[in-house]
Amino acid sequence: MNNQHTVAVWDIFIRIFHWSLVVAFTVAYFTSEEENAWHIYAGYTVLGLIIFRILWGIIGSRHARFSDFVRSPGTVHRYIRELRAGSAKQYVGHNPLGGWMVMALLSTLLVVTVSGLKVYAIEEGRGPLAANPTTLTLISAAHAEENDEEDGKAETQSQDEEFWEEIHEGATNFMLVLIALHVVGVFVSGRAHNEHLIKAMLTGKKSIK
């Protein structure tokens, strides 16, 4: 006997956010080596989406709010045990493990975008993290004879750039690991609860027992 019923879970803003983020991150990732305008615009898009999701996690619809799915470590651990035993409770919104994955993805993406903006600011002197885009140029022109000082500044700038590039690359690689785990989690949860989670993120509706 089929006791499932369909409920509305994901609002239109969450669905647009999710699939827009998939597209924007994909574009940013595959244009990263070229350092072209597409990479920059995609990065700004990702950052804008993350800011929106944080705000929507506070004031949005019920299942979009962080308070609905961010649960204690004990609850997450218990859910994992029950999932392995085949007795895990089905949740209308994100399950406890999925809630932590959402926070991990958002946090990592924030590090990716902010570090990317920092690299952009150092390399090009542009973007919101470039406090004064023309500072280096003006200093060079006014103190051209002070070669030692300029060399010191150039060395510091190079070290800063390398530091932020490593953070940017490391966070991006970690993001790929999280994405893989997220996909596996969607598959496992779908099998465990007979859910069609991809369809739910398209239609906004979910089948609940």
TrEMBL record:
Principal place of residence: membrane
Q: What sequence ranges are listed for the domain Cytochrome b561 bacterial/Ni-hydrogenase?
A: 9-204
Q: Where in the cell is it found?
A: Cell membrane
Question: Which InterPro entries does the record match to this protein?
Answer: Cyt_b561_bac/Ni-Hgenase, Di-haem_cyt_TM, Hydrogenase_cytochrome
Report the membrane topology from the UniProt record.
Multi-pass membrane protein
Transmembrane ranges, per UniProt, are 12-32, 38-59, 97-117, 174-192
Q: Which UniProt keywords apply?
A: Cell membrane, Membrane, Transmembrane, Transmembrane helix
What is the protein named?
Cytochrome b/b6 domain-containing protein
Q: Which organism is it from?
A: Methylomonas defluvii
